[in-house]
Amino acid sequence: MYNPAQTGLVYINFGHEIQKHRPGLVVSKTVFNQLTGFCLICPITSTRRIFGTYITIKTTLV
């Protein structure tokens, strides 16, 4: 079984409202993911939001 690591990026279907796979950031600890088989993933979007839970991810091109 695949257990994503914390800070990993995954592509996932977030449910029936979004009809395609979207990128997400794994925020739960790796050991939690391994022990429970669950993980907490936050969706990544290019749409700017004003929500209190919205954060900007800065990227660096190498």
Mean model confidence by pLDDT: 87
Side by side, the strands of the main sheet go 1-2-3
The value of Rg in angstroms is 13 Å
How large is the share of residues in beta strands?
Answer: 15-25%
The largest β sheet comes out as:
3 strands, antiparallel
Number of strands: 3
Q: What is the helix content?
A: 10-25%
The H-and-E topology, N to C, reads as: EEHE
- Uncertain residue ranges: none
Q: Quickly count the helices.
A: 1
Shape: globular
CA-to-CA gap between the ends? 31 Å
Determine the structural class based on helices, strands and strand pairing. alpha+beta
Can you describe this structure?
By secondary structure, the chain is an alpha+beta fold. The protein is 11% helix and 19% strand. The protein is built from one helix and three strands. Strands 1-2-3 form a three-stranded antiparallel beta sheet, with no helix packed on it. The radius of gyration is 13 Å and the shape is globular. The model has no long low-confidence stretch (mean pLDDT 87).
Topology record:
Blueprint: E1 9-12, E2 22-26, H1 30-36, E3 41-43
Quick take:
The protein has 62 residues and is of the alpha+beta class. The chain has 1 helix and 3 strands.
Q: What are the main properties of this structure?
A:
alpha+beta; 19% strand; 62 residues
